[in-house]
Design brief:
two-stranded parallel ribbon; TIM Barrel; 487 residues; alpha/beta; eight-stranded parallel barrel; globular
Amino acid sequence: MEFMEKSIFPKDFLWGGASSANQCEGAYNEGGRGLSTSDMVTFIPKEELGNNYNLELSLSHIDKYLKGDHGAYFPKRKGIDFYHRYKEDIALLAEMGLNAFRISIAWSRIFPKGIEDTPNEEGLLFYDKVFDELLRHNIQPIVTISHYETPLYLTLEYNAWENRALIDLYIKYAKVLIDRFKNKVKYWITFNEMNMMETTPYTAGGILLEKAKKDKITTVYQALHYQFVASAGIYEYAKKTAPDIKVGCMFGRLEKYPVTCNPEDALQTMKEDQMNFFYADVLVRGEYPGSMLRFFAEQGIDLDITAEDKSALRNNHAAFVGISYYMSYVAQKDPSGIKTFGNIVSSVRNPYLELSEWGWPIDAVGLRIALNRIYDRYRIPVFVVECGLGAKDTAGADGTIHDDYRIDYIRRHIEAMSETIQDGVALMGYLAWGIIDTVSCSTSEMSKRYGFIYVDQDNYGNGTQDRLRKDSFYWYQKVIKSGGTSL
């Protein structure tokens, strides 16, 4: 698709990119910032890591590295130095033509331990400057309040989101953000990819499983419930104090196909689908769906849910549904079958789809299906806040980076979104994940690159950190300028 007759995308469509504080900021010990859970993740080379993601840490691991680094490298402490280079990076985003940029705020930069009565003013001033710089370039900030990091103190003292105390501590933190930035930030997301709590409680909830008082499955869903209640508290606060802002929820959409037309495979697909929709069901519809109540009963899960919790969820709902989407999955009743690793979730191999360099199935049609199904289910705006392709990009001697594979991936997904809008879906925008190369969330490596802007830095933090424009930079620039008509 080269040119449409006219743009299908609305004039207020948000064309942008996304990143997170723990993957890009660096400066972990500057500006009054405290340690976070992401600061304790060390880099392990792929040949040692294999297919086991380094996402669940132990108390002994943390204790060891609190006493000294022992020669370890902590990639997320360095990030890509956005903390010092934000003006340069934002200028590149503006050159590309972005009108939206999703970032997160580091909780421990505002409340170093998470328990303080007064926020760290130096941390707030940093984000003031970032938002001012974005707005000066007519780029809307999209802010995730909590994106895969928790003040480390809360993990060590409370086991973080296992503890109900985190609800009030999070709400205190989020209220400070809204009070401070409500005139600069219109769109907010309470938690990044809430469903990742099931896969990695440490990353998504700051939880050390060895410290948990109950079994893993109960601990996970209890933590999620506390995050639901905390989200509802912020929906309520925003509605009362800043009615012009929009606060949404977010989950990683795992679009599933049955492996065959066997009704048992279709039933399994439905069950897995219900599990994936569960998060938005609670935060948009305001109650636990019957499928999850049955699941809890069958698994013997007894959660701490008060009448006040139920009232908060019933009366305060997300303004939009944000999703990350990278690939689709296949479900089958029989758990055997070829496995492929994708976004930290195992899946049966789909023979109809090609794979990325990291073995992730590429399925733009799945995005169209996902967006239609979400909108049909909730009837509120949907926002693609993460979607992109990780690959090993190589810079030539002349500084050029040819990434046609990324252009092709993004093109297909933009085409799918244009079809989605014609289907009648209220789609708010598209934010390409890792618009600037960042440290990988799952493997903490730099060689898995998503950006349209290359960062000269290797897996051990070596390099000039110079920023280089990839071919995809110029292509996306053209797409945005044309309003999505030139692909």
